[in-house]
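Researcher: Here's the sequence for the chain we discussed earlier.
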Amino acid sequence: MQDNATEVTAAGIARLAGVGRAAVSNWRRRHADFPKPVGGTETSPSFALAEVEAWLRKQGKLAEVPLRERVWQQLAGHPEGPLTALVHTGCALLLIHERPTVWLDASAGSDARLAAMLPGALEKVLTPRVGGVRGRRGTGVGGASASASAGTSGRAGAGASAGAGGGVNGVFEQAGVNGPSNPPAVNAGSAPTAVNSGSAAAGVNSDPAVPGVNPESTAPGVNSAPTVPAVNSSPAAPTVNTPPTVLNDSSVHNAQPTHGESAVHNASAVHNRSTVHSTVPGTPAAIADSPSTPTTPGAPTPPQTTPTIPTASLTPTTPTTPPTPALTTPTGPQLLPSIPLLRGAAELAAEIGARQTFEFLLGRHLDANPRQYTLTPAELAGLMADLAGPARTVLDPACGTGALLRAVDPRPGQELYAQDSAPELAALSALRLALHSRATVRAAVGDTLRADAHPGLQADAVLCHPPFNERNWGHDELAYDPRWEYGFPARTESELAWVQHALARLTDGGTAVLLMPPAAASRRSGRRIRADLLRRGALRAVVALPVGAAPPYNIPLHLWVLRRPDRTPAAPEVLLVDTGRFAGETRGGPDWEAVREAVLDAWRAFAREGRLAERPGLARSVPVIELLDDDVDLAPARHLPPAAVADGAEQLTRVRERLRETLRLTADLTPPPADPAPAARWTLTTVGELARGGALVMRTGGNGGHARVPVLTDHDVLAGTAPSGALPESEEEAVLTEPGDVVVPVLGGGAVARVIDGATGGAALGRNLVLLRPDRTALDPWFLAGFLRGTANNRQASSYASTATRLDVRRLHLPRLPLEEQRRYGARFRALDEFERALRHASRLGEQLVRGMYDGLTDGTVAPD
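Model: Thanks. This is the structure I predict for it:
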């Protein structure tokens, strides 16, 4: 049954019917019975999908729509929006993946029956896999008010609010991780211990079967010994509580712990060591060696003996509310509008698999909204995961869409922890990871720096692509946070706050890999923290990536590799790597294979030996003492010797000879003088008419397909270069080019058309390109490409938006000529194309020669005479 509430735009109708948008506009004007708009705006209306399909079917205009396109249209036009639709679909796909027979039984009946049965079935799957809890108002994503419950502004914006009734049994009872202010004790014994708080007593570790964090350590239970101090300090008034004070003063804790959580914050229960927060101004990470003020007003100060311990065991005290789980089980009424979509997704999953179905829908949504999300490319995520190495427990504190955790190599008993301030991203990450692997996924919503959802976690690895240049990251609220072990970050150094958060969540010897802006390596405001990271051996490597590796694509980002110092002496050297030489010449991105090989080879050699022999222009290990100057500048390019240019002069000589040969060829290819001719009066046709008549086939690009193949981008066509792009793998078949095809860019306003040759054939067609495959018995490819390049032709077929020009290829004209006459024109157009290629090649060689001469003269490898 089709959902009448699902809406579709004019562009969607065009895809359904296999026509252009102009045809849809004509139908609306010419047919009085065309469906009326049900939403959208006056300039961009939306229509009921069911009514549109019925009308197209009645008119005989409904094309054979692939199931993938139909499901996507249902998701994109969902009445609650595509994000809610994605979450509901992901939940159903996880149920199909985990318990297919349950889905088959529930979906056998009516839509109302399926909506009523799904919540119970979903909860049995979501709770063990992603920590889902029953949907309620103001908790997580999945309920009607999910987006309003986050209380966040960006991934490092305003502090997160958990919302009323935000139970955390789904996320944290399964993992045994302490919540921010009222965590359960870990390994507290066989029987739960009641805690005497101001409200009803809550059991500690009511489920003894749930494993704790760091189970290899024998952690004492709450109240197991009167000598173990519990810590319940606030940034404004640090206190050390004796056990009687903790048990009887309910004002120190949240009075109503939910879902069996204890209201006692005992850090020693997690780390098996006493922890005391000292908030002496100027030394936020110091350890107190003297008693503090008791929490009970007027109570005498008891003598305390507190051992000095590593600051890694300190638990932040800033959060005052339980973490919000990333995912809640949607209720029956919430699921009812999504039932047609879920049935379609299940049908698609039967064809391609539940995991592939979710990846396809998520990828389409991300591609349709590129400005809303900052994505981590899959190649970069894989490199970061390889630098971190194999790990059983991995954290991403700014998970986004889950790309980094998805790149982690699976291991038995693996646990993946995630957090993001955007509720929809946290929910989608949880579902994506659960579908991708068998690892236990623990995801939460909240501003990580202000309200860390995993304060007791000691992970083997941390991967993070933090937000850059955030001013509102919590500088004023977090002045005495114990995570600032290496110094309190300046307001302009939010990235160094993320670095220290990552280090605080690592186990001793654990590895963190963060994507950083290059300015973080050299800004003066962060030099003291950088110096302390170097002195204590926490910063192990800085890798400069090529331009275009990740957004923002116009600057060369850095990777920082850090390790939590253990008891071994700090390493005296730091690895610096610069992969800028592997930047791609086009917008296809860098040479990822070369980047990966260079970085991993240098890192593994450095990790084995503690130092790396100099690799000019690429990598070297630098003694820490060389970096500890007034600037503490860690930019690799400033510390690496230039690449060896032993044969620099000989190489420049070869470039010069190639340029001379190319210039001679260019002179030979120069077109002869143009002979005047009377204005021709041809009978014209359009590309659209030729396509309808079968003289050519018209295709658009943008899908990666199942196999990795080179991708011809619009920039490649404009620059006349080889295929250089890449597209993510998808279930939609890629459009592969063949020799003789004509490819036309539709953006940019340039009069360009390229005939595919044997070297380019077989590449996938990229985005913003249209492929025309002429019938050789009716059309000559070079004749077609030549007339499509006419300036006046392109001008009359172009439409203009506020910031771009778009070409409607169907409106391009060309004359109706006999095939022999077409070939005469085609031969002339082909000669012009060869001349143009020679000019471009000469231009590139000239630039290479000029740049090489400048470099050789300035570095002393070329003599001035």
